[in-house]
Amino acid sequence: MLFGPVTLEFMDAAESIESSEFTGKVALVTGASRGIGLAIAAELARRGAAVAITSRKQPDLDEAAASILAEVPGARVLAVAGNTGRDADRADVVERTVGELGGLDVLVNNTGINPVYGPLVGVDLDGVRKIFDTNVVAALGYVQLAHRAWLREHGGSIVNIASVAGLRPSGALAAYGASKAALLLLTEELAAQLGPDIRVNAVAPGVVKTRFAAALYEGREQEAAAAYPLGRLGTPRDVAEVVAFLASPRASWITGETIRVDGGLLVNGTLG
Questions:
Q1: What are phi and psi of 14, to 5 degrees?
Q2: 153, 45, 152, 28: which is closest to 98 by C-alpha?
Q3: Nearest CA-CA partner of 194 in 132, 128, 150
Q4: 174, containing H or E segment
Q5: Nearest CA to 245 among 257, 231, 263, 233?
Q6: What DSSP designation does 86 have?
Q7: What is the DSSP letter of 263?
């Protein structure tokens, strides 16, 4: 009886803080028409941010924006189509974000591709170049643009979406994993260079139930989930909530960090 009301008041206060912690802030989320990126954008909108979302196809983005507005009526959502791998498209996305939403306080580099699988000795090098250009070089490109346009003067937060494949050998995902390992070191380098006013962190998910990862679990989800100590695969919301924390003032003394969101997978020591 003594602790019940106090606990409820604390929970209510925490929920109130979370729902408004990004009020007045602007977030840009790449690869946000579906899956993890969309979940991150929706979570940031729920917590008060104006959100710019980008991916290659405008109709998919418009649908994503509508889904965010259905969850968060009154949210400010800007949908800008662009290919993350193209310099001009990235520049347009950042320019419109700052111009139309009034800033760019949080950058989430979520776009990732994986067009090749299998042993590295036989992999197509053009495919590897494309993976690194999109997963690593383009992420740095967005950081540079956001820094020049807003973050250098105002400060803010950057969160890069990596993968547990960047932390352990994965076999068939080797080229993708190598690119995510590069992204993780890029995160640390940027954290060292951009502090104290800009924080840079990363999230390394395990297998999350999205279209992008479907080949890793479709038709064998129970078997795939058995490798996880928590007994299930991840959901986009699992990742989104961690990203929102890292981007928020509650993580104000965290930078250069990678948080695994993997259901305990790497407790087993391997991805295999």
A1: -65, -45
A2: 28
A3: 150
A4: helix 174-194
A5: 257
A6: -
A7: T
For strands 77-81 and 106-109, give the pairing.
unpaired
* 142: its two tokens: 């967005």
**Helices H, strands E: what count in the chain?**
10, 7
Distance between CA atoms of 104 and 146, rounded to whole angstroms? 7
Residue 234 sits at the vertex; the CA angle it makes with 229 and 238, to the nearest 5 degrees, is 110
Specify whether 176 is catalytic: yes
Given the residues 117, 142, 176, 217, the one annotated as active site:
176
d(CA 149, CA 141): 12
Q: What is the pTM of this model?
A: 0.91
Q: Could you read off the pLDDT of 96-133 as tens digits, one per residue?
A: 999 999 999 999 999 999 999 899 999 999 999 999 99
**Nearest in space to 181 (alpha carbons), one of 245, 131, 222:** 131
Distance between CA atoms of residues 217 and 125, nearest Å? 27
pLDDT in tens, 234-250: 899 999 999 999 999 99
> What kind and span of H or E run contains 200?
strand 198-205
